[in-house]
Every structure is written in structure tokens, then in C-alpha cells.
Write a structure and sequence with these properties.
Layout (H helix, E strand, L loop, with lengths): L2 E5 L6 E4 L6 E8 L6 E5 L2 E4 L5 E5 L8 E6 L4 E3 L2 H10 L4 E5 L14 H8 E7 L2 E4 L9 E3 L6 E6 L3 E9 L5 E8 L2 H8 L4 E4 L6 H12 L6 E4 L16 E4 L1 H15 L4 E2 L2 E6 L3 H13 L3 E3 L2
Parallel strand pairs: 4-9, 11-19, 14-20, 16-17
Antiparallel strand pairs: 1-10, 2-3, 3-9, 4-5, 6-7, 7-8, 11-21, 12-13, 13-20, 14-15
Helix pairs in contact: 1-2, 1-5, 5-6
């Protein structure tokens, strides 16, 4: 039987940027006892990473009310946590305290995120058996699928021979279009195929680009190296001055959406096996709604 894991020592501080303010910030990972799960530490308060405490955060300080995932504690909140949660899920660490220097998850440049490396280097077994879950067999398609009236978004789960995320994305931009990517969750594949994919930033066409570029880096921390800059709908390349063709071509868009989805799945507090999660054109808000609904339906069963 596999054992739960934590860290045998804390990681160094990992520095990046707060995308709501443009200021430097950092995260640090600390060991936690068995059966504690994942928690965020903000101003001394421990906030469990649970989907029932999650919410869609739209900060007036962020550009054009761009959204992120947050979790609410008693007095504090942890914001923009979807990417760090994806890193944690990919590492397979079960018990962890994640300290946020300013309450906001750090955004890294596409080639500078060492979170998974630092976690794997310090990963250590606990004396408690790991609990793994899968979707129950024999369920109908309607039982395994979540939709919402008036929306095209959907999330479905089905049995499979591993833990997969299958994502179908689509935006009416020539540089994106319709995209599909199927990813088997694995720490090595995650670091190579998913983690470098830059976050998505749609550049407002009504603001001249030179002025916009002067504003977005110092005030919002958005750069060519940490954001995928999507221009007008007819443009076939991204607006990035570095890697305008995309790290993986235009597939960089859908691969980043997989990172977002994996981070949201991490808030369910389950280590999944033999289950495929299929996402269709979802955003943060629907990810939280759909995964919360699936968990409420009690369609997952413990394997070990």
C-alpha cells in the first residue's frame, strides 16, 4: 500500500510576482502532519484548501476584472491559488502548508517555476496509508456530467486506465480557435507539457499597445514571459515579443487551461486514480461550480 507524503523540510522561498499589484511576492512550502491535507497560511491563519470554501475572485485592482480562484478562511483569504494547487497535485504531496507572503499565489515566468522540483526533492513518506479515489462504475452519463442552463460549459467524469484531464477549448480568435488536449497527470509530464504554459491575457484593442505595455508590467506584473498575450480576433500569432508562436504553438492556450482545471480538482481534497475529467470550454467559475456539484453527488469511491 502507498503511504501519504509530506516534506522532510521546508522549501526555500520561491519568488515571482503578484498579478494584482505587480509587486514581487513569494511562496514557501512547509511540512504538515498526516491527514492534514493541503492548507494555505496567510498572516498566520491556516486556511484549508477545500472546494466548499472556494470562490471566484474578481479584483477591481486586476485588469478588466480578470478572475482567479480564492479560498476563504475565518479572517483571511488566499487568492490566485489555482496554479500552485496544480503544482501540488502534480507532485503528489498529500500534506502541506503553503505560506503566501501577501495572500496571493505567485506567478512565475514560463521558465522559472521550481515549485514541483523543490517539492519532489523534499518529498517524504508519512506513517499513514494514502487514500485514493475513482469515479464509481456503472453510472449514467447524466450522473457523471454537470451542465448549467444557459451555458455551453460542461464537466464530465468517466472511468479510465489512469488519471487524465481531457480539455476542449475554443475562442473566436485566429491564434486560438478550437483546441483539444488530453493529459495524463504525472509529475514529469506536467513539468514538460503543462507547467510552462503562460496564463492568458486578452489585450484590449481600444488601448494603444505601447501605452498598455508601459502599464501592465509595473502595475499588474504582466510580461511576455508570464502571460500569453492574445490580440485581435484576426491575428494568427500571439502578441508576445518572446515566443509569439507560443511555447507549444497555439496549443499553449489549452495546456494552460488544463493547469487551471488541475488546480481546481486539487481543491476537492482527493487523490484520483482511474478517472478522466473532461472539461468543455469552462472558466474558473464553472470549474468550481461543476466540481463542487460532482462531489456533492457522491459519485466517487475510495479505492485504498
Amino acid at each position: 500500500m502507498k503511504q501519504q507524503s509530506t516534506l522532510y523540510e521546508s522549501t526555500p522561498e520561491l519568488h515571482g510576482v503578484n498579478v494584482f499589484t505587480g509587486k514581487d511576492n513569494h511562496i514557501r512550502f512547509h511540512p504538515a502532519p498526516s491527514n492534514c491535507g493541503i492548507s494555505f497560511i496567510v498572516n498566520g491563519e491556516r486556511i484549508p484548501a477545500r472546494i466548499e470554501q472556494s470562490f471566484l475572485h474578481k479584483s477591481p485592482r486586476s485588469l478588466w476584472l480578470s478572475s482567479a480562484i480564492g479560498i476563504q478562511g475565518r479572517n483571511e483569504r488566499a487568492l490566485h491559488i489555482e496554479h500552485v494547487m496544480a503544482d501540488v497535485v502534480a507532485s503528489g504531496v498529500d500534506n502541506l502548508d503553503i505560506a503566501l507572503s501577501d495572500g496571493v499565489g505567485t506567478r512565475f515566468d514560463y521558465d522559472s517555476n521550481r515549485a514541483v522540483v523543490e517539492l519532489l526533492e523534499r518529498k517524504s513518506e508519512c506513517d499513514t496509508e494514502k487514500r485514493t479515489y475513482r469515479v464509481k462504475r456503472g453510472l449514467s452519463e447524466s450522473e457523471r456530467t454537470v451542465t448549467q442552463e444557459g451555458k455551453t460549459d460542461s464537466i464530465a467524469v468517466e472511468p479510465s486506465g489512469g488519471f487524465f484531464i481531457d480539455y476542449r477549448a475554443g475562442f473566436p480568435h485566429a491564434s486560438i480557435g478550437e483546441q483539444h488536449y488530453r493529459f495524463e497527470v504525472d509529475s514529469d509530464s506536467y513539468q514538460e507539457d503543462i507547467m510552462p504554459a503562460r496564463a492568458i491575457f486578452f489585450m484590449p484593442y481600444f488601448i494603444p499597445e505601447p501605452f498598455l505595455r508601459r502599464a501592465i508590467q509595473p502595475h499588474y506584473g504582466v510580461t511576455d514571459r508570464n502571460a500569453l498575450m492574445v490580440g485581435r480576433r484576426h491575428e494568427k500569432q500571439f502578441r508576445n515579443r518572446e515566443l509569439p508562436e507560443g511555447i507549444y504553438g497555439n496549443e499553449e492556450f489549452v495546456r494552460h487551461k488544463i493547469m487551471d482545471a488541475l488546480g481546481a480538482i486539487g481543491l476537492m481534497g482527493m487523490q484520483f486514480v482511474d478517472t478522466t475529467f473532461s472539461f468543455f470550454k469552462t472558466g474558473h467559475g464553472f470549474d468550481l461550480y461543476g466540481l463542487r456539484e460532482l462531489q456533492t453527488r457522491e459519485i466517487f469511491e475510495q479505492v485504498h
